[in-house]
Structure formats: structure tokens, C-alpha cells
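ARCHIVE ENTRY
Sequence with per-residue C-alpha cells
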Amino acid sequence: MHVFFDIGNTLMSGPGSPAKKIANRFYLNTNTVANYIYTRNIQSPEELIDRLKEKWGVSDDVFLHTLWFRQKRLACPIPGGRELLASMEVHYTCISNIWQPFYEGFQEHYDYVNTVASHKVGLLKPGLAIFATALGGLDPRDCIMVGDSYPND
């Protein structure tokens, strides 16, 4: 048996969707922003600013710096999440549509956890490719997915 866990709203809570915040600030489509920021390995707020300027011609350095650091600082474990993982007697992996600052917040609260993160692999749930990547050679019939979104997880 292998268990896959989502991260956001399953193991971690946080300040809300960065894609929605960016989309609202710059009058962009939330899904388009989510697809962009969750599938790119953007490593800093400066890189985020440069990428958004290049992609959509938008910029608000203060807003984007603040968003980046709030995503990391306000990421916190959902009560019982760490204890659950520590007590598990089966293998588990996290698989998540996530971007770098929230991922960094996750890493600060959990010891090493094998993770397939969308921003690292360039793939999104619910696409089959990210699940195939996470499965590796595992038989999907021997796995379960625990998440907060039936359509995505």
C-alpha cells in the first residue's frame, strides 16, 4: 500500500490561492495564472516579477514581494498532519499543485517527505502525467490519494 497526500488544505493551510490574488490584482484569468505559476520553477520574487512582466506586461513589485513572503511565512501544518505522517506504517508521497514559496513553508514544517511538486515537474493535477510521475513503478491499484478536491485529487 502506498498513500499519496495533497499538501494545500490537506496537510497545510495558508493565506489562500496566490493565483487568485495575482489574477485579481492584474485582471487576469485565475486558471491561466495558476497553470503558469504552478508549473514553473520560479525561485524568487524577483524572478516572479520578471516572468509576469514578460508574460503579461504586469508589475507591482511591492505586491508581488509581499505575496511571495506571506505564502511562505503563513504556511502552517493542519493540526494532526505531522503526527499522522509520523505514525504511518506505509509508504507515502505528497503530490501537489504548488509553487515555490508555499512549498518552502511546507518543507519548514515537515521532515523530509518525498514530494512530486507541480512547479518542479511542470505538470498539474488532475492530469494523468503528474500521477504517472508520482507512481513511478507502483501499481495504482495498491495506492490511494488523500486530498481536499475530488476533481483534482
Remarks:
- The mean pLDDT is 96.
- The CA atoms of residues 19 and 34 lie 5 Å apart.
- The radius of gyration is 16 Å.
- The longest strand covers residues 91-96.
